[in-house]
Amino acid sequence: MNKLFIDTNIVIDLLSQRTEFYKATQDLFTYAIDNQIKLTVSTLTFANTHYILKDQLKISKVRSSLRKFKTLVDVASFDDKILERALEEEFKDFEDGIQYYIAIENNCESIITRNKKDFNKSSIPVFSASEFMKLL
Questions:
Q1: For the chain, which residues make up each domain, given as ranges?
Q2: Residue 124 and residue 82: Cα distance in Å, rounded?
Q3: Burial degree of 124 (CB within 10 A; 0-12, 13-18, 19+)
Q4: Burial profile 104-122: b = 16 or more Cβ within 10 angstroms, e = fewer
Q5: Which listed CATH number (3.40.50.1010, 2.60.40.650, 3.30.210.10, 3.10.290.10) goes with 2-135?
Q6: Residue 42 parent element (H or E)
Q7: Which of 78, 88, 97, 110 is the least buried, fewest Cβ under 10 Å from its Cβ?
Q8: What is each CA distance from 113 to 11, 20, 80, 88, in whole angstroms?
């Protein structure tokens, strides 16, 4: 079974139903519901998603959506080791460095993101949701 790390932008696409990206993202999560793939997100993703969606939706709706979403994924936290690795590396975006090392530490096979260029130093494959769905 594929174990995938899901970047924050994919979660936001799903929960805010961003028209351009929603179909592929929804399909990806449907595969997870059917236990065909295993999805991992970070605790950082929950914080960032809440922060972004609170300006678009009522807080109660955001939290309700995140509670439901949490049942679909494994949630991985980060510690000092991951933080140190992200600080040492040359990821243009510090948050992407944290996400990357959480994926590595949790033995994810691939990263799913809409911003593939942010993970150009990745040692594991990086796909958009639609690219990954084509592989299935």
A1: 2-135
A2: 17
A3: middle
A4: bebebebbbbbeeebbeeb
A5: 3.40.50.1010
A6: strand 37-42
A7: 88
A8: 9, 14, 24, 22
Are 75 and 108 in contact by the 8 Å Cβ rule? The answer is no
- Which tokens hold the place of 72? 């679909």
Take residue 42 and report the two structure tokens written for it. Answer: 């970070």
Mean pLDDT per 10-residue interval, the chain, length 136 residues = 93 91 92 90 96 91 94 94 89 92 97 94 95 91
Q: Report the predicted TM-score, pTM, of the whole model to 2 decimal places.
A: 0.93
